[in-house]
Amino acid sequence: MTLTLTNKVNQVNLPNLIIIGAMKCGTTSLHYYLSRHPQISMSQEKELNFFIREKNWNRGIEWYKSHFTEPVKVQGESSPSYTRYPKWSGVPERMYSIVPNAKLIYILRDPIQRIISHYIHSYAKGHENRTIGEALANFDNNSYVDCSKYYMQLRQYLNYFPDSSILVISLEELSREPYATLKNVFMHLKIDENIYFKKPFKPFHSSENKRRKNYWGERIEKLPLIKIIEKMPPQISWHINQILYWPFSQKIHRPILDKSLQNKLADYLRDDINLLRTHTGQSFNDWCV
Predict the structure, then answer these.
(1) What is the mean pLDDT of the chain?
(2) pTM value?
């Protein structure tokens, strides 16, 4: 599928909100919170990955439209892989060619803590068998590290979308001040926050920190059923996963970075994170970089 000219794309049943990442930064929680607002409909399948050529781009625009059928003010999706440049390149260009007026949200967290969670995610899925030290032996062209170069990722979108279209928030502020953070999101989307907060706010706990192994230390292999579960709304799939895995599993211990390696990572990421601070005007004071 080649890039489609924006003036030839029928905008009916296309999203006007896209959460572009970052991976392991709370996109599942944010997707769920937004889905509870009566003026917002988030895609039932969370990660559509449509604008990634190597994934779902060739399924075509009609396939993408089929995920957005609710008659509400805001329809959205969340695909953290949209900010995995350079592993997946050309995403902002394709996105702009289809939904040039979409509002984007980029949710971040402490970049080193994100790297650790990303490593755990890969290890739990069987895509990683190295120690975290081995996985971070070289920072250049390293997928774990590149995803935490937040300004580098953001810059790809600024080549196409106006800065006013992109809201940058952090997992730390969403966890610490959910009301204020969501109000900021609703203002960005130009919808009524008062409708949402009439009901008590209930934090959503994703399964990010509950990756499991069985008691023999072996990874639990995914059954075909799990592929179906992963496409369910996050508030449903999380509970089903707990029922399936909890009785037979134990937590994978979170690896601890060697202090020297952590300092080297911080030094490597500092220029990028400072550019992010300058661009957004946000301090991110609780980050270790």
Answers:
(1) 85
(2) 0.83
